[in-house]
Design goal:
Length: 259
């Protein structure tokens, strides 16, 4: 376990030093929230939201978007280590190769959780949240949802990174898989008004349950029209545990790029 923590610390320091990666994964959702939220709220005056205030509604989507960006960027360290030859050195250490994956995944999880919660906390003073469970309980529910969704995304990114040979292919596949899921998760518009076939896709979408939990924690004034925290956390917990174990299942191997 100590070896995994050393590897996690190394990756965390690398992200802290890479300010462009650190800032871009947080600033993009915040800019999206500021411009799209205010533009739609004042320009279109959406009336189909459960509790009005489109900017507040978008915060949950911005938090999940931050987690998506973070999990994608953090997994790039696998390719950086492989192509620089560091992965060869790490695999020659007297520890199981899965310890390497565990350390990298712990770093990615920590980065994703901190950045996602930072976006929420930065938005909170400027947005009229309902906090229907109270501020402390709402933050706790938000943190639990953020941890679970980042655990799931980290496992997915780790599983793909250990199987796809090029970083370009990894990013293309992650974008292809995650951005359609993000759009049909209720992050940008309620899923209740969608056609039946799109609602079916939304309910089999794991990001839907993360967005729903965050909406209930900070935005909603009641549970009506939402899925509910019980279902949200049951789905997220099962998927997070399963995906994370899949991400650790395949030991990292050198490819032609790391030879």
């Amino acid at each position: 376990m100590s070896a995994a923590l050393v590897i996690a610390r190394r990756d965390l320091l690398a992200v802290v030093r890479s300010r462009s990666q650190l800032y871009s994964s947080m600033l993009t959702p915040i800019l999206f929230l500021v411009f799209l939220g205010n533009g739609v709220s004042h320009g279109l005056e959406p009336a189909n939201l459960p509790d009005g205030n489109f900017t507040a509604y978008l915060v949950a989507g911005a938090v999940v978007m931050t987690s998506v960006f973070s999990s994608t960027f953090s997994s790039a360290s696998y390719y950086r280590d492989r192509d620089s030859g560091v992965l060869r050195l790490l695999l020659s250490a007297p520890v199981h190769p899965r310890v390497l994956l565990l350390g990298k995944s712990l770093a990615a999880l920590a980065i994703g959780v901190v950045q996602a919660m930072a976006v929420l906390l930065l938005a909170a003073p400027f947005v009229d949240f309902e906090w229907q469970y109270g501020l402390v309980a709402g933050l706790f529910v938000s943190l639990a949802a953020v941890v679970l969704v980042n655990l799931m995304l980290t496992g997915l990114a780790q599983a793909l990174a250990s199987r796809i040979q090029t970083m370009q292919g990894f990013h293309l596949l992650m974008n292809l898989a995650l951005f359609p899921l993000l759009f049909f998760s209720g992050a940008f518009f309620p899923i209740d008004g969608l056609p039946a076939w799109l609602r079916v896709l939304a309910f089999v979408n794991p990001l839907t349950y993360a967005v729903d939990a965050l909406e209930l924690a900070v935005y909603a004034s009641g549970d009506a029209t939402f899925i509910g925290l019980g279902v949200d956390f049951a789905v997220l917990a099962v998927l997070a545990a399963g995906t994370y174990l899949v991400g650790l299942a395949r030991t990292p191997k050198l490819t032609y790029s790391g030879a």
